């Protein structure tokens, strides 16, 4: 857990205005979390913290690659990531998340732990279905052996004869 301490920003002594924080996210970052589909990472995260009276605006700029498994063939590959997210932090009486991008923290807080937000933003950058990009010649980047096996398996599946009776059903 000590690894994630570097992502904590003490904001109480900061002057109003923008402040820059830069992090390199690697495999160790995602190893600090239990459940993730991301196996490896090489991402540069630049955070601009714009401190204002009673609020802060954090802009996360993430650029690099994430190691994910292909949904089609299961092989790991590096998926490019280039995303920007904005988070608004308000000071209030208690912690609450008003909207996806608006968080209220208590007045008594003095530090922001940006690691969970970085983790969430990078996980959300991975689409639900991830597939190898096509090669330059237009063919699939997936493992050809796995694609061949999948094609063989998806031929004519045996249909349960009980379902054939539903074809005779007239719903009109």
Structure description:
There is one protein chain. It is built from four helices and eight strands, in the order ββαββββββααα. The protein has 172 residues and is an alpha+beta fold. It has one domain (2-153). Strands 2-3-4-5-7-6 form a six-stranded mixed beta sheet. A two-stranded antiparallel ribbon has the order 1-8.
Instruction: Point out poorly predicted stretches.
Output: none
Give the assembly state of these chains.
single chain
Number of domains: 1
The succession of helices and strands, N to C, reads EEHEEEEEEHHH
Question: Into which percent range does the helicity of residues fall?
Answer: 10-25%
Radius of gyration: 23 Å
Strand content: 35-45%
Count of alpha/pi helices: 4
| Biggest beta-sheet profile | 6 strands, mixed
Overall residue-averaged pLDDT value: 87
Concise account of the structure shown:
This protein is α+β, with helices and mostly antiparallel strands.
């Amino acid at each position: 857990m000590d690894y994630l301490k570097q992502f904590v920003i003490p904001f109480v002594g900061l002057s109003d205005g923008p402040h820059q924080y830069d992090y390199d996210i690697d495999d160790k970052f995602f190893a600090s979390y239990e459940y993730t589909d991301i196996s490896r990472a090489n991402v540069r995260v630049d955070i601009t913290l714009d401190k204002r009276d009673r609020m802060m605006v954090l802009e996360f700029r993430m650029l690099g690659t994430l190691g994910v498994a292909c949904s089609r063939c299961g092989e790991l590959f590096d998926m490019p990531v280039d995303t920007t997210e904005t988070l608004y932090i308000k000071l209030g009486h208690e912690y609450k998340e008003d909207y996806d991008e608006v968080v209220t923290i208590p007045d008594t807080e003095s530090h922001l732990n940006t690691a969970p937000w970085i983790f969430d933003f990078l996980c959300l950058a991975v689409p639900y279905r991830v597939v190898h990009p096509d090669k330059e010649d237009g063919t699939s980047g997936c493992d050809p052996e796995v694609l061949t096996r999948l094609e063989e398996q998806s031929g004519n599946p045996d249909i349960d004869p009980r379902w054939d009776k539903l074809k005779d059903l007239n719903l009109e």
